Amino acid sequence: MPGVITKFAVTSMVMWMAPVAIVYGFYYQAFPGVSRMSSSAQTLASGFLAVISVNLVIGLYIFMAMKETRHQEPQPDPTFLANAKASINQPTSSQPSDDSKGKGKVE
């Protein structure tokens, strides 16, 4: 369980830090070639890349979660299975039962 919480905390932090770092890098022109872009192109590119980075982090978290689960065929409850087998093996009575007694009578 602590591993799950750690993965969640780390991916949550990266999900917040990656877009902020991208926008910061575009604003202060830390990436090569950004200085040649217009202001509106910088804004659009930084926003687009920030959204993509969040989606990549979410996808990575989902991938880690799916890799963590076991791929095992579901098994029936042993108690239920034993009771079901016992009920199948019980002999049935040869006389038909009349379930209509007492039903639908109004006194």
From TrEMBL:
Coiled-coil ranges (or none): none
Ranges annotated as biased composition (Polar residues): 86-97
Record GO biological process: vacuolar proton-transporting V-type ATPase complex assembly
Keyword Transmembrane tagged: yes
Membrane-spanning ranges: 12-31, 43-63
Keywords noted in UniProt: Cytoplasmic vesicle, Endoplasmic reticulum, Membrane, Transmembrane, Transmembrane helix
Coarse class of the protein's main subcellular location: endoplasmic reticulum
InterPro entries: Vma21
Pfam families noted in UniProt: VMA21
Compositionally biased tracts (Basic and acidic residues): 98-107
A Gene Ontology cellular-component term: ER to Golgi transport vesicle membrane
Ranges for region Disordered: 73-107
Keyword flag Transmembrane helix: yes
Topological category with respect to the lipid bilayer: Multi-pass membrane protein
Function: Required for the assembly of the V0 complex of the vacuolar ATPase (V-ATPase) in the endoplasmic reticulum.
Xref: PANTHER family: VACUOLAR ATPASE ASSEMBLY INTEGRAL MEMBRANE PROTEIN VMA21
Protein name according to UniProt: Vacuolar ATPase assembly integral membrane protein VMA21 homolog
